[in-house]
Amino acid sequence: MTTTDPAAVARIVDHTLLKPEATPADVAALVAEARQLGVYSVCVSPSMLPIDPETLGDVKVATVCGFPSGKHHSTIKAMEAARAVADGAHEVDMVIDVGAAVDGRFEDVQADIAEVRAAVQRPTVLKVIIESAALTDEQIVGCCRAAEAAGADFVKTSTGFHPTGGASVHAVELMAQTVGGRLGVKASGGIRTGAAARAMIAAGATRLGLSGTAAVLGSLDSGTGPEDAGESGY
């Protein structure tokens, strides 16, 4: 993306609601706002699916699996992803076993992703959440390579729930360099201002996970500094 005008940024946003206390009414409001803002998709918990297609318009549906810890058996993640697709999800954001990455067991990371990929074939989009704030640079690179080898479509920084934090410009740059345009890069977790969104896009993000989408889009022309990027939480 070479422009960061609000309409262009909106078209790469997953408008996100993953709070445990979310209700069907909250999801309905999310969808209505998504259509008003012109975002790419809504991202909701799998238990909130299906969403009535007539309410969506052109908005896609994304969901999560193995969320937020990633400490689920791969078989369970695969089943959860398959059920979500059956319930209308176009995209699945899966969480890896971060401990396997910390241990350097990237073959296990790859196998975990591959099992989910086998359960949700393309055109379903598979994004892989690596919790970049909890990893070293070497571990980030290893996870990105594992995701690519397993057939994922995107690598994603964060769940937004990990205590180490969310997206950072450095992590996005490193992820983008590693996948070299062969996979997308989704920045998520703590992107609350237009300045933060601009910084992530400049670093190589091709998708943004936002919960406060209206505020971010509305502040794209503000002077808020890049120091607001990379806070934890949605």
Automatic annotation (TrEMBL):
Catalyzes a reversible aldol reaction between acetaldehyde and D-glyceraldehyde 3-phosphate to generate 2-deoxy-D-ribose 5-phosphate. The gene is deoC. Belongs to the DeoC/FbaB aldolase family. DeoC type 1 subfamily. It comes from the Bacteria. The active site is at D93 (proton donor/acceptor), K156 (schiff-base intermediate with acetaldehyde), K186 (proton donor/acceptor). It is found in: Cytoplasm. Its EC number is 4.1.2.4. The keyword Kinase does not apply. NCBIfam families: deoC. GO terms for molecular function: deoxyribose-phosphate aldolase activity. It catalyses: 2-deoxy-D-ribose 5-phosphate = D-glyceraldehyde 3-phosphate + acetaldehyde. Keywords: Cytoplasm, Lyase, Schiff base. This is Deoxyribose-phosphate aldolase. Pathway: Carbohydrate degradation; 2-deoxy-D-ribose 1-phosphate degradation; D-glyceraldehyde 3-phosphate and acetaldehyde from 2-deoxy-alpha-D-ribose 1-phosphate: step 2/2. It is an enzyme of class 4 (lyase).
